[in-house]
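EI: anyone free to look at a 33-residue chain?
SC: sure, send it
EI:
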Amino acid sequence: LFTDLANPTSNHIYQAIGYRPVCDYTLYRFDPI
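SC: here you go
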């Protein structure tokens, strides 16, 4: 499940029902030249 870290409301709800952070995720995309 991916959440918007800037949205405290949804993050609070997910934590209240038992979801816990597992890791950070970064996506890098390189387009061909």
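EI: Residues 1-33 form one domain.
SC: 👍
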